[in-house]
Write the structure tokens for this entry.
Amino acid sequence: MTDAKKRARICIVLATTLLLLNVMAVQYAAAPPSSETLHDISSISFAQHDPINITHSDNITSLELPGSGTHSDPYLIEGYQILNPSGGYCISVSMPNEIYVTIRLCRLSGAQGAAIYFDGRYCGIVSCEISSSSTGILIEGDGSRIVRCEITNCSTGINATGSSNRVAESVIQNCEWGIVSEGEGVYVEHNFVSGCSEIGIKIASQGDPYSGGDTVHSFNNTVTYSSTGIELHGQVFWLITNSFTDNRIGIKSYASESQFTYNHIYDNNESQARDDGFNNRWGYTWHGGNVWKHITPGQPLPINGSAGSVDLYPILLENDPPLLSHPEDVEFNSGDSEVVLVWEVEEVNPDRYYITDGVNWQDERLEETTIMLDVSYLSVGVHTIKLHVVDRFYLSAYDEVIVTVHPSPAEELPQTLFLLSIIVILGWVATFMLFRVIKSRREN
């Protein structure tokens, strides 16, 4: 393989990788998180158990819990059903800075305090089903993980106080307060919250704007049919790729030094968003605004509130792919100049376009309604030019144009002369052979 071909293949691979990365980024804006239940523990046979209260290592010994309480081998509480505890908690662990615990696949209900209370070094709460309690899960400590839990009909679904806690992939429905978190370095992501009479997600943080490690991240959450979708207090939030729809108020921010990007914010009854904080950024560069309805494409969108914030690059929600014209197939002679293919594009939320001739790859931001490609550089032969146009929701349009390049007259002349020479020589040979045959017959 020649060096030129190797370089061409490398370029195609790199371009394809960049395309995939762009697709991933755009898809954040395109699809709000799913409202489907994230797990199913209905087939599990639970063991009925009395309330569990751990305040000392002796309690762990008496319970005969698996594990050693270390980070790599935490104590395991698994497969229990605990209903209507008399002491206020279904499971309570209070051993600050001493043990690591995982609570998994438990069904808990009817706690007057909290179904799960944890005050310790680390707690992993995974795939638990909690209902009809004052608080579903109460965490007082750092570094805990709440993942794939389902919580319904509680006053507060999840209340996590401390730093570096994570709430993810959980479903919280029909609570007064869905997720309440206070601390730095918190992640709240991929949760579905619905039907909260007060606030779907409330987060308070005092992160350092110059230290990314203290940032509070809220990614890919869906909050719907609640009084307020999300309420923020403090500073340094990244609110990205969430969906706040069909609430009374979508976003209520008292935060500062925060970023709001790629969020779906529409169909909220009283207010889509209100910002009473300071120095927040709504939207990030030309492709990173939030998704709204009933806006004028291309015009900055003022955000209600005292902060005076503006979404500089708002995105209009749509479901229509780009409209793309089709130029006719082209034929021309090698050496001709300014042979240009022209496509017209109609699109409310343009993003990028990609053109390839099978060897070369062009990846450009779509800023104009016209795309032009000069194909006069192509070599003699038949080429297929492929165009792929995408908008910010990764709705696509495709087109192909066949370009045929003929040899130029100057390139054909030597070939013609060569063929004529061959014909003349063959004519001479035929004449000579015929003369020899005639002479031979006469001699005989």
Notes: Residues 416-444 form one domain. Confidence is low (pLDDT under 50) at residues 4-38. Residues 8 and 360 are 7 Å apart (CA to CA).
